[in-house]
Amino acid sequence: MVAGAIASMAAIIAGQRLGELLLAQSNRRRALACGAREYGANHYRLFFILHGSWLAGWVLEGQAAGALSAVWPVWLSLFAGAQLLRYWCIISLGRCWNTRILVIPGQPYSRRGPYRYFRHPNYLAVAIELAAVPLLFGAVWTAAAATLCNAALLLFIRIPAEERALNHMENPR
């Protein structure tokens, strides 16, 4: 039963990520055609490494644990809530949504959807997901490692790059 649940969740997440990458690539082509400037391109691969390692880590650790967490409904509910928030972000940004940091000259940043309440709501969704999915399958070490690595990448690299991009949108030179 657990092996099937792990395989199903891994397939769902891999499918989501692939679809999101395809959408991001399409939106990126459109943005670049409109003269977009990319920020933080040099750190983009670090997120691929993090998310790939996270996926492999919780799958392997979850299989080794061999059982769902005793509080699996909590973790599954948090995962579902994170998905709702993530797709609210994607829908709210529409063709401007991307996994990369792109600024189209003269375009203001969005204050729609969850962006009315948080500056970086998608990162909250990802942080919840990186912890909840491994914990669902008892993969405590993967949850801890992914959460710490994600926090470091976001706080020290990604959010500062995004803030520079947002500042450029507000104060173009």
Automatic annotation (TrEMBL):
Location in or out of the cell: Membrane
Gene Ontology annotations of biological process type: methylation
PANTHER family in UniProt: BLL3993 PROTEIN
Pfam families (UniProt xref): ICMT (PF04140)
UniProt-recorded Gene Ontology molecular function terms: protein C-terminal S-isoprenylcysteine carboxyl O-methyltransferase activity
Matches recorded under Gene3D superfamilies: 1.20.120.1630
Keywords (A to Z) from UniProt: Membrane, Methyltransferase, Transferase, Transmembrane, Transmembrane helix
Protein name (record): Isoprenylcysteine carboxyl methyltransferase (ICMT) family protein
A GO CC annotation given for this chain: membrane
Superkingdom classification of source: Bacteria
InterPro entries the record matches: ICMT_MeTrfase (IPR007269), Metal_cation-efflux_comp (IPR052527)
Record-annotated membrane-spanning stretches: 123-156
Membrane topology according to the record: Multi-pass membrane protein
The keyword Methyltransferase is annotated on this UniProt entry: yes
